[in-house]
Amino acid sequence: MKFDLQHAIADPAWTPGILSSSAMTRFARAAEDSGYSSIGFTDHPAPSAKWVRNGGEGSADPFSALGFCAAVTSRIGLLTWVLVLPYRNPFLAAHQAASLDALSGGRLTLGVGTGYLRGEFRALGVDFATRRERFDEAVEVLRAAWSGVDVTWEGDGFHAKETHPQPRPAQRPGPPLWVHGNSRWGRARAARHGEGWVAILAADRLARTMRTAPIGGLDELSRHIEDLRTLTAGQGRPADAVEVVVSGHWPMLDVRRGWDTARLQDDVAALAGLGVDRVVVVVCGDDAGAAEDTVRKLGEELVAQYVC
Q1: How would residue 293 be classed by pLDDT, with cut points 50, 70 and 90?
Q2: How far, in Å, are 142, 243, 269 from residue 108 at the CA level?
Q3: How far apart are alpha carbons 117 and 131 in whole angstroms?
């Protein structure tokens, strides 16, 4: 089992202090020292005030934040958690990703999704109704842009004629793609395009808010993993070629409130038994010191037990 860490800004109660250069440096280095596989930032450039006031998580531009983290660390992976592909021209996304991967020595993983906030789509001038089609197109453009050959592409609202994107990513043929989506559509895209499938354990109400299919418990998750394996094999790939990444199984962790380490270990064993490869951890962000302490303490009590 591997553990990936969402930056503390994901706490809806985050405070600006956690984005200071010193706090960001300490947080990223604590994550690296403690054995987490990657550090992640989500993508909400223009959330509605209503969503924010009703508990929406905070966010920092993922490429900027991950670039900073890359500069103050040397090993930890860099994760977009998740990048909403329909928000951007796909050549721009490909260029940003390739640049970060090259500068970090091949540490980037692109978690990608379709997005779900209608107001954010409106603010960015993107048609919400066509987000799935834009997602599919973007994945194809990313792969083409990273190939090192000239690319000609007639897209929705853009035309590229004999473009030659550079630099190429350090990883070939490109950074791994983790596809976010509880629905069968999401699993099918992961099976076709991805190196990972991202599942969020969310009951009906939260799933409706995120406009995704609910996964209410481990039995349901197990069925979806089996479906993923079937879909992946149907693409002519090994059935286990796609890593299973799970979030939402634990509440936000906070060293000031503590946790039951034995229970967390039992949870990890249960998830591993289903075929889960990675668990994403979310920590408190209302205090920079508490965020760092939470990362280190959880690293000592849980993450270190699984790091070879």
Answers
A1: very high
A2: 14, 16, 27
A3: 11
Whole-angstrom distance, CA of residue 209 vs CA of residue 100: 31
In single-letter form, the type of residue at position 50 comes to K
Contact (Cβ atoms closer than 8 angstroms) between residue 14 and residue 285: yes
Length of the chain: 308
Burial of 165 (0-12, 13-18, 19+ CB in 10 A): buried
Angle between helices 184-193 and 131-145 (to 10 degrees): 10
Q: How do residues 52-71 score in pLDDT, each as one tens digit?
A: 999 999 999 999 999 999 99
Residue of 46, 42, 35, 48 whose CA lies nearest to 14: 42
Rounded distance between C-alpha atoms, residue 254 and residue 52, angstroms: 21
Categorize the per-residue pLDDT at 186 as very low, low, confident or very high, splitting at 50, 70 and 90: very high
Amino acid in the structure at residue 294: T
CA dihedral 121, 126, 128, 130 (to 10 degrees): -160
244: nearest Cα among 280, 216, 220, 295: 280
On whether the CB atoms of residues 57 and 69 are closer than 8 A, the answer is no
